[in-house]
Design a protein that fits this description.
The strands form 7 sheets. Strands 1, 3, 4, 7, 10, 12 and 15 form a 7-stranded antiparallel sheet that branches. Strands 2, 5, 6, 8, 9 and 11 form a 6-stranded antiparallel sheet that branches. This protein has helices at 2-9, 322-326, 328-369, 388-395, 430-440, 451-462, 471-483, 497-501, 514-526, and strands at residues 18-24, 35-37, 43-48, 54-61, 70-73, 77-78, 85-93, 110-117, 135-140, 155-161, 168-175, 179-192, 195-197, 200-202, 205-206, 215-218, 220-221, 225-236, 242-251, 255-257, 264-266, 271-272, 282-283, 416-417, 530-531. By secondary structure, the chain is α+β, with helices and mostly antiparallel strands. Strand 20 and strand 21 form a beta hairpin. The radius of gyration is 60 Å and the shape is elongated. Among the domains are: 18-191, Galactose-binding domain-like (Jelly Rolls, Sandwich), CATH 2.60.120.260; 371-412, no CATH class; 416-531, no CATH class. Pfam families: EphA2_TM, Ephrin_CRD, Ephrin_lbd, Ephrin_rec_like, PK_Tyr_Ser-Thr. It catalyses: L-tyrosyl-[protein] + ATP = O-phospho-L-tyrosyl-[protein] + ADP + H(+). It is an enzyme of class 2 (transferase). Keywords: ATP-binding, Cell membrane, Developmental protein, Glycoprotein, Kinase, Membrane, Neurogenesis, Nucleotide-binding, Phosphoprotein, Receptor, Repeat, Signal, Transferase, Transmembrane, Transmembrane helix, Tyrosine-protein kinase. Residues 19-197 form the Eph LBD domain.
Length: 533
């Protein structure tokens, strides 16, 4: 720990402690008029200090009388918010051995006391002239004493006391039988002066309550500097010296440290600094220039360019594609990788979609094969179901159940017979019969059927399965027809001769399908069979 404190103290500038004086007896131009007890004790006299300047002093020399108890008390001293104060005493003491015919009660020391108060309330009798309520600081002894034949030797002693909590205090000196002179008394406190460390300013800070106390002073970055580690603080010890800095600042871009590392100076024109830190400003790269102070980048000259991805310290070139060409392999590689990923996703999606469709068709086929034998078509008789809804749901599996609803049951289907027509096809060849069917065998419109409705019937009947209108389209078309009643007034002419020529009496079964057409023709040629629908 001691090594750490020593190492950290190396980075702090050597700054002497600042001493602020609260009271100095040498400032007095008239009598001090301090309070004494008893009156025969301390005496105020005029004298000279070590520089031979006139001063007011107090002296006492009642060595020939035993049991001396002489007190001297200063005026009230405001403490100004400080916690610990220092007292500097300059005095001289005569050697007891140099005084003839004195009793053994001669002393060469005196005592220092202090008394705290919220105001100047002391009188000649209060506080009492005894050790309590005063607080003793120390017994002061001289380093050197003088004899009658020698000049007075001045001693200097410094003592401190605290912590102080009230508005101010008094100093008191107790003589117990010495022959001495109190030349001057100075009361002061210490503080750490304003300093700059690690590009941070730390304000003037008073010392702590104890001699070993460390007071934290918060710091702030100097102008054009930024924090790089926090918190910013510096420790002030009891002697008024800075100790351990914590945190630091550094110059921002466009500014460099000064020679003494106490401020950040702007880069001069023609130089720049692109990053924050303790680095210095550098000249602008080739084909670039800046005329401003504190520049963090040098703009390219006319006709020269620098890519956005290039660092600020790179030179400007006349070919702006140079940097792009250097990155072209990377761009192509990234694009190729992206294309491969997209193709893979498309292939996976197509395969999954096909599997889903094939699975649905397989499931539908397997269920259908449970009811269909080879060569037999599907027929669902709704009368075999107790609930017609079950028959509809079984028949209309391709339609969502929520879209199917039975509004009304209007009756049952009837059988129909197909008889030989008057114009028999027995004497015609099969191609001729098929041609006739293709030309004349159509779904005839019902009686008084609107043309647009008949056209919708043809689209649902004649077109291929995948091309037929969907259920939603049929509902939409019917809704439009109901809303536009005028379109229903155009009635298609009835031409039922096509079916009558084939002997059909129920047109609802007709479809444009070669297989069904051939079956009907064969039935006409052979015999009449009933058809159920």
């Amino acid at each position: 720990m001691d090594y750490l404190l020593w190492l950290c103290s190396l980075v702090v500038p050597v700054v002497l402690a600042v001493e602020e004086t609260l009271m100095d007896s040498r400032w007095a131009t008239t009598e001090l008029a301090w309070t004494t007890f008893p009156e025969s004790g301390w005496e105020e006299v005029s004298g000279y200090d070590d520089s031979m300047s006139p001063i007011r002093t107090y002296q006492v020399c009642n060595v020939r009388q035993p049991n001396q108890n002489n007190w001297l008390r200063t005026d009230f001293i405001p403490r100004k918010g400080v916690l610990r104060v220092y007292v500097e005493l300059k005095f001289s003491v005569r050697d007891c051995a140099s005084i003839p015919n004195i009793p053994g009660s001669c002393k060469e020391t005196f005592n220092l006391f202090y008394y705290e108060s919220e105001g100047d309330t002391a009188t000649e009798t209060s506080p009492l002239w005894r050790e309590s309520p005063y607080v003793k600081v120390d017994t002061i002894a001289p380093d050197e004493s003088f004899s009658l034949l020698e000049a007075g030797r001045i001693n200097t002693k410094v003592r401190s006391f605290g912590p102080l909590s009230k508005a101010g205090f008094y100093l008191a000196f107790q003589d117990l039988g010495a022959c001495m002179s109190l030349i001057s008394v100075r009361v002061f406190f210490k503080k750490c002066s304003t300093t700059i460390a690690n590009f941070a300013v730390f304000p003037e800070t008073a010392t702590g309550a104890e001699a070993t106390s460390l007071v934290i002073a918060p710091g702030a970055c100097v102008t054009n500097a930024m924090e790089v580690s926090v918190p910013l603080k510096l420790y002030c010890n009891g002697d008024g010296e800075w100790m351990v800095p914590v945190g630091s600042c550094t110059c921002v871009a466009g500014f460099e440290p000064s020679a003494d590392d106490t401020q950040c100076l702007a880069c001069i024109p023609g130089t720049f600094k692109s990053k924050f830190g303790e680095g210095s400003c550098t000249p602008c790269p080739s084909h670039s220039r800046t005329s401003a102070r504190g520049a963090n980048i040098c703009p390219c000259q006319s006709g020269f360019y620098r890519a956005d991805s290039d660092p600020p310290d790179s030179s400007c070139t006349s070919n702006p594609q140079k940097s792009v060409q250097d990155q072209l392999p990377l761009i192509i590689g990234s694009a190729s990788a992206g294309l491969v990923v997209i193709v893979a996703l498309v292939v996976i999606a197509v395969v999954c979609l096909k599997k889903q469709r094939s699975g649905s068709e397989l499931e539908y086929t397997e269920k259908l094969q449970q009811y269909i034998s080879p060569g037999v078509k599907v027929y669902i008789d709704p009368f075999t179901y107790e609930d017609p809804n079950d028959a509809v749901h079984e028949f209309a599996k391709e339609i969502d159940i929520s879209c199917v609803k039975i509004e009304e049951v209007i009756g049952a289907a009837q059988s129909a017979t197909v008889q030989l027509p008057r114009d028999s096809y027995q004497r015609r060849a099969v191609p001729q019969v098929m041609t006739a069917v293709e030309q004349d065998y159509r779904l005839p419109p019902p009686m008084d059927c609107p043309m647009v409705l008949h056209q919708l019937m043809l689209e649902c009947w004649m077109k291929e399965r995948n091309l037929r209108p969907k259920f939603s389209h049929i509902v939409s078309t019917l809704d439009k027809l109901l809303r536009n009643a005028a379109s229903l007034k155009v009635v298609t002419s009835t031409y039922s001769g096509d079916l009558l020529r084939l002997g059909g009496t129920l047109p609802g079964h007709n479809r444009k399908s070669p297989e069904i057409s051939q079956e009907i023709v064969r039935q006409q040629m052979s015999q009449t069979l009933p058809i159920r629908v």
